[in-house]
Design a protein that fits this description.
Length: about 375
């Protein structure tokens, strides 16, 4: 999840402003492409007309100059693919690129979340790299996040639980949330699933899964007893391990929905097939906990991050339906779209009443919602 390092948390005063409670829009029994596009248009209009500042940014981000939330908002507008948003997108990209640093990263000076900022910025540049206009910026940023990956360069060999992972920044311990963004950013700019950085990341990702086996030598899966935990993912095995969902009575790390979708997506990006035991176990856990009413294991906390991650992961999985534990197939696009559209506010924005993980920030949450809805549209050719 977007869990800020402790030194950063006092720097987010803009997040304390609570907005009016969301009012659900009326929806049909199942969302269709027309309803999805209408919701996207309304949300994009909110971002462009009410959320973007004159300098092209979308909010004060992390309480200090940063391209992070702006990158998510610009990516959401790019995915919305509306000609009328072009000027706003270009202004946003100009703001993002103002954070280019001599080290190749795209981040605030002395930022404790520089890896996170750079990975999100790479996703924007990759999406808009027509005719190679951002080749130089992408090359430099790619080198930066590769250098930040925890490996032998940090004195972390393959046996170390931090090996292969990525954290928020240079000194932050690695976690699955940032590692998935690193993997996705590298894949978005052309890295293959056999890329050494992605294969090293797969080692870390496998260690964040509650699955006893040859790919996870950590103690946590054995302590996360019961089928309710098996196959799911937690936040990190590094630094004595952590799960945003807490620990089991035996000292294991609890699985939860958003990280399980993040783990599934990352394994597929790293080349694992559907018959791999790790993929099968993740799909089984998600089938057991299939829902868009909450973020399984966390309730309403991080709900829109969950929607965004689930949408990308299910799209990467490549199935139009997802079958739950009871054998019931679900049209996940329609069900996820219904859940997201039903929470849209009259002004086109979204916000979570649960403030954890910065989800009381409508600019961040609206970006998550729009990105999720983009994946709910029928795939090209269908």
């Amino acid at each position: 999840m977007h869990r800020l390092p402790r030194p950063c948390r006092p720097l987010v005063p803009f997040l304390v402003a609570c907005l009016a409670l969301p009012v659900a829009l009326s929806t049909a029994a199942a969302a269709d492409p027309t309803a999805i596009r209408a919701s996207i248009a309304k949300g994009a209009t909110y971002l462009v007309e009410q959320a973007q500042a004159a300098d092209g940014s979308f909010a004060a981000d992390l309480g200090q100059p940063s391209p992070a939330i702006t990158a998510l908002a610009v990516l959401a507008l790019a995915k919305a693919d509306r000609p009328e948003d072009e000027a706003a997108i270009e202004k946003g990209i100009k703001f993002i690129l103002s954070f280019r640093q001599p080290d190749g990263g795209i981040h605030g000076k002395e930022s404790p979340v520089s890896n996170y900022e750079t990975a999100l910025s790479m996703l924007v540049l990759a999406a808009r790299n027509k005719d190679g206009r951002f080749d130089k910026e992408i090359k430099d940023a790619q080198g930066y996040i590769r250098e930040l990956q925890w490996d032998d360069g940090e004195g972390k060999g393959r046996t170390d639980p931090a090996f292969g992972g990525a954290g928020y920044g240079r000194k932050g311990r690695p976690d699955l949330s940032n590692t998935q963004f690193m993997i996705e950013a590298l894949r978005s700019v052309g890295a293959s699933d056999t890329d050494p950085a992605i294969q090293k990341a797969l080692v870390f990702v496998s260690r964040t899964q509650n699955l006893v086996g040859p790919d996870n030598d950590q103690p946590f899966p054995a302590k996360a007893t019961g089928d309710d935990q098996k196959g799911g993912f937690y936040y990190t095995p590094a630094a004595d391990g952590e799960s945003q969902a807490g620990k089991t009575p035996e000292g294991g790390l609890r699985s939860y929905g958003s990280m399980t979708y993040a783990g599934l997506k990352s394994m597929i990006y790293a080349g694992l097939k559907k018959d791999d035991p790790r993929v099968k176990a993740a799909v089984k856990w998600l089938g057991k906990h299939y829902t868009f009413k909450e973020n399984p294991g966390l309730g309403q906390s991080g709900l829109f991050y969950y929607y965004h991650t689930a949408a990308k992961s299910l799209a990467v999985l490549g199935e139009d339906t997802f079958t739950d534990e009871a054998g019931k197939p679900h049209d996940w696009r329609s069900e996820l779209a219904d859940a997201v559209i039903g929470k849209q506010r009259p002004d086109g924005s979204w916000v979570n009443e649960d403030r954890r993980f910065m989800e009381d920030n409508p600019k961040l949450v609206t970006s998550y919602a729009l990105l999720a809805l983009a994946y709910c549209l029928p795939p090209a050719g269908k």
